[in-house]
Amino acid sequence: MHQKLLKSAHYIELGSYQYWPVLVPRGIRLYTYEQIPMSLKDNPYITDGYRAYLPSRLCIKSLFILSNETVNIWSHLLGFFLFFTLGIYDMTSVLPSASASREDFVICSICLFCFQVCMLCSVGYHLFSCHRSEKTCRRWMALDYAGISIGILGCYVSGVFYAFYCNNDFAPRVVVMYVIALLAFLFYISKVPERYFPGQLNYLGSSHQIWHILAVVMLYWWHQSTVYVMQYRHSKPCPDSVSH
Ligand SMILES: [Zn+2]
Questions:
Q1: Percentage of the chain surpassing pLDDT 70?
Q2: Residue range 231-240: average pLDDT?
Q3: Name one Pfam family in it (predicted).
Q4: DSSP secondary structure string for all residues of 16-31
Q5: 100 CA distance to ligand 1 middle (Å)
Q6: Residue 81 Cα, ligand 1 centroid: separation in angstroms?
Q7: Contact call for residues 225 and 177 (beta carbons, < 8 A)
Q8: Which tens digit of pLDDT belongs to each residue from 84-113?
Q9: CA of 174 to the centre of ligand 1 (A)
Q10: Distance 212 CA to ligand 1 centre (A)
Q11: What is the distance in A from the centroid of ligand 1 to the CA of 215?
Q12: How far is the CA of 18 from the centre of ligand 1 (A)?
């Protein structure tokens, strides 16, 4: 057994100094930037660790190997489970104990459903971006963009519903969300930090991974803010002079 494991172990470079043993299933090998098809060439500062030319079955199997997409896939897969769990927790505990109205339940469900769709579209894209058919890759990429739009829509729905409520605690929370979103976007477009350390952040620490984690943080922050305002609304109804 030990011999067998050793035989299928494949050593990859993590950063410029360490070598990590990785178990690579038969049929999956990792490629350098020069070796991958044009459609995958997006970031020259990520020099190695690419999956490419895989059939669907091996794309799915690649979930369990270390490639330059591993953190991207798992960050949003865990993000999906986070929002799924939060959904159950909200529906069974948080909302009932805040004596939430039917509207609150609907808004909260739409918000969390959109977040989960957003996470799953991203997981799908990063899992199947290495598919051997370029058409399939393009479809998944379109779905990833659609997922981002759906995530934003989820924020928007709860934002519109609660933003005009008579308490001024909501505005700073919206500002924090925009700051996180801006920061995430800046990492996304600038390709910092790998731009300054080409080839050293192939597996860990690249801009896209930071963007992914900030996206989860942002949606989580938005969910917490929505729940906070909803609870506030029920504990302190608007004074008559403000509501009209
Ligand atoms: Zn992504």
A1: 84
A2: 76
A3: HlyIII
A4: TTEEEEEE--TT---B
A5: 35
A6: 17
A7: yes
A8: 999 999 999 999 999 899 999 999 999 999
A9: 23
A10: 6
A11: 10
A12: 26
